[in-house]
Structure formats: C-alpha cells, structure tokens
Design goal:
The chain is of the alpha+beta class. It is built from 8 helices and 10 strands. Strand 7 and strand 8 form a beta hairpin. It is globular and about 65 Å long.
C-alpha cells in the first residue's frame, strides 16, 4: 500500500488474513510522488499485490500517464496484481486527467478496478459498486469469493440509483465539478495567505484535501486538540491514514463556500492567536 492512504485499506487487508507491506509515498517540496525504486525491492513471489488509490485519498494526487506507465512496467515485469481503487475518478479538476491503469497496454490481464457512484453522487447508502476485471481467470476467482460469502447480488434500488447517476446526471456533475473547483481554488489561496506555515499539495482530484500543519510545531495529538478545542473544527486526523500522516489533517470541501470559509477562518484565527501568544 502506498501510504498515507485511505484508512479502511488497513483493516480490509488484515481481516483478509494478509500482511500489509508499506510502500510510502515520497513527500518533497509539498508534493507526493510514488517511490518506484523501493517498490521494485518490495515485490516478491509472495508479496505481489498492490492496492493503488487513484486518484489518491488523502493526498489528492491524480497520477500522471508517465507515473502509471512506470508502475505498469514494474507490475508486468514482476507478475503483480494491481487492485485499483478508482472511486474518485469522476472528481478530477480541469488541470488534471485521470487515466485508468487497467487501460494501459498489458494491464488488463493483471488489474482489478473498482468504481462506484457513491462519492460523486453522494449515494453511499445504496451500496452499489462495480468491479471491472477483464481477465477471465482473475474474474473467476473474484466471483467465487463473492458467491462463497453470498455477496453476488445487489439491491434493486442501488442498481436504479447507479443507472440514474451514470446515465442521467451529466449536467449535474458538471455543476458539481465547477463548484468543487471553485472551493479548491479558494481554499488553496486561503491556506497560502492565511496559514503561511501550513502546506498543501495542489489538489488535482477528490474533494478531501491534505494539509501539513507541522510548520506550526504540531504532531497528531496536539493538532487534534488544537483544532477541536481552539479552532472548534473537527478534521480527520492524519494518522488515521498511517503514521506518515503525523502532523497532517484531512479537510472535506464538499460543502457550501460559506461553510468552507467559516471553517478555514476558525482555523486561521486560532493559529494567529497561537502565534501571537508565542510572541507575547
């Protein structure tokens, strides 16, 4: 797993009786990239499955074609299986482009791609998702597990909601992305101007953004305490996504501009007060 990463990945792997091997992302100059050299060393005949989060949650990267092609090269050479969580594929901003790794040459045979309308259209309660598995052998193994645990059916309401979302909501989606991109640009400018010691990688996708508060001297424990008790804002603690998230927090911009502004103003105001007290 390329950590820090979506927290349910951890329990899902452990509950399946498997061992987590981390391939932490590289964080340099406020930007995350994949650590390909380390990945090459980690892959073995008994450790050859990678969970790819694309677009990545929580760091909001949309992996470039060059990055995915390099990953695909390793996967093919090392006989890997890529489990691609592409649930945020519909939430990509105008300055980025999502590429499904399973569409790259040679990757259809070794990729399991998961998508769902749940994030984009806010219908997670419908429990409707899709697994795209072109390879017949891989698909057969997957289906056999579903049948074993009686998970091979989907509720009719979920199917109807999925069909409506993907088939009839294109204009709504355009409006959504315009709103989210406006919120992204607002938040990015706000953090740069009003929280000068914080850092945020330029978000390329998703509606959940990753802020580095370590410049203010915070670790996970002190940051959570500060946000809740001084700023009166509850963000997702960075260590929920792995130890690499110590001193970070995840913020959701999927709301009104007014509510986003209020939350950011609370954080900035509390930070200003904290900094002034240090000077005083």
């Amino acid at each position: 797993m390329q950590t820090p990463v979506y927290m349910p990945f951890y329990c899902t792997v452990r509950e399946a009786g498997r061992i987590i091997v981390k391939n932490p992302l590289i964080y340099e100059n406020g930007r995350y990239t994949m650590n390909f050299d380390e990945l090459e060393k980690l892959v073995t005949p008994t450790c050859r499955t990678l969970i790819l989060c694309s677009p990545h949650n929580p760091v909001a990267r949309v992996w470039s074609r060059e990055e995915l092609e390099r990953l695909a090269d390793i996967a093919i050479r090392k006989n890997m299986i890529i489990i691609a969580d592409e649930i945020h594929q519909d939430l990509v901003y105008s300055d980025a482009k999502h590429i499904c790794i399973g569409s790259l040459p040679g990757m259809a045979e070794c990729t399991v791609t998961f998508i769902a309308p749940s994030k984009t259209f806010n219908i997670a309660g419908m429990k409707a998702s899709v697994a795209i598995i072109p390879d017949e052998l891989l698909r057969g193994i997957y289906v056999s597990v579903l049948e074993r645990f009686h998970l091979n059916s989907i509720n009719i309401l979920g199917i109807t909601a999925m069909e409506a979302a993907y088939g009839k909501c294109g204009e709504w989606h355009k409006e959504l992305m315009a709103h989210l991109e406006g919120n992204r640009d607002y938040m990015e400018a706000f953090v740069k101007e009003r929280m000068p010691k914080a850092r945020m990688d330029h978000p390329e996708g998703t509606y959940i953004f990753w802020i580095d508060f370590r410049g203010y001297g915070f670790n996970d424990e002190t940051l959570t305490d500060f946000l809740v008790n001084e700023a009166k804002v509850a963000l997702d603690p960075g260590t929920w996504f792995g130890v690499e998230g110590d001193g970070f927090a995840r913020l959701n911009i999927g709301t009104t501009r007014a509510m986003l502004k209020e939350g950011l103003e609370r954080i900035a105001g509390a930070l200003d007060k904290r900094e002034n007290e240090k000077i005083g």
